[in-house]
Amino acid sequence: MNNGIQFDAANPNKYATATVKCFDNGREIRTNVTLPQVDSTTQIKAILNVHPVPNSSGYVYDTWDRAASFHLLTEDSNRIELVKMCTGFGGDTRHEQDVSSLAPLLKGNVTICGFIDTWLPNAWKVELKLKYTRNSTTVNPSQVIPIISWKEFKRKDITAVKPSITFTIPQKTYKSVLTLYTSGHAINDNPDEFTTKEHVLYVDGKEVFRRSPWRSDCKSFRSVNPYSAIWEGDIWSSDLDRSNWCPGDEVVPFLIDLTKSLPPGQHTIRLSIENIHFVNDTQFGYWRVSSFLSNWGPEQTAILTKGINFSNTNTCRIYNAESQIIVRFQNSTPSSYKSIALVDISGKKRIISVDQNSRSITLDLSRYISVNGSYIVIVTDGPEKFVKKILYIQ
User: Fold this and answer.
1) pTM for this one?
2) Which of 65, 237, 268, 388 could bond to 229 as cystine, CB 3.0-4.6 Å?
3) How many Å apart are CA 232 and CA 360, to the nearest integer?
4) Please, which pLDDT band fits residue 216 given cuts at 50, 70 and 90?
5) What domains can you pick out in the chain, each with its CATH number?
6) How remote is the C-alpha of 105 from its chain's centroid?
């Protein structure tokens, strides 16, 4: 994504291209992209650059700090955030976020959106890239469940039963982590921007998380706030502590391990934000929130059967993620393994080369038809002349 974001009711499509569409009078842009098919040992990072558009006088059009979100738009209209941030007061910023926990969604054809809450034309230029890197220590989740689609919550939106969602944790899931993005703001008032409110998370009616989101390090971002107001005593507007955000920085999500609270089966998650400020319809506080749940599938130890020259120092572990099996070498490098074969019990197989720079090998099971869900993996040190080990996977 490389495009402009602005507000211009008279010319909302100013920054539209053949591949980028504009919405909300130009404040939101969307593009469809095709992402690579990767395995669960791939680290994915979102890299975002945000630039204010300069005017003819040498200044910039938009000198204000603006809330911003760059997210996936799923087929069922869920908005899942990749990078949540706030622009500086008219400054250039660069942001990098590890988004590997969204790996199951970051492949194939996807829609990516960019939004900046600006009210000026010719406001901002943005560049968003996804960087894919093989990393043998990475084990990405096998499933992502949207919990709260990116939205603004006012006091009336928070009740004893909402926002909530009911979902099912698959059998053999061994880890579940909730990612929660939140930031407090206000209209014609200051309370929720400068006064935190407790966030409480419930699983099946039981409180599992309570936190008051807050940032107290905003002074360190003066360099990306060149148009910040400055008051007596060298106090910058951008210095002030805020409700989980700073002008010019990304919003860091809460990562909440819910493994013990979410055994396989049906569950309900509900979020409460307590005492959101409200005076009337023109003077109120609100919170921008989104959340998703990442689940990791079963980790299995391979059942070792007959093998030639097998040594316990070269044991493997098997990670089963959707239609893939990852063979991870724990105590050795794969340099001695020249090929790997996946064989179902009907005898069909295919030789797959080993990545010499990685400690893991990925087998795409979608290409094979298993019998009773059973496979045999054969690792060799050459063109199948010398079998190093045989692994039987059920």
Assistant:
1) 0.77
2) 237
3) 59
4) very high
5) 2-296 (2.60.120.230), 299-393 (2.60.40.10)
6) 9
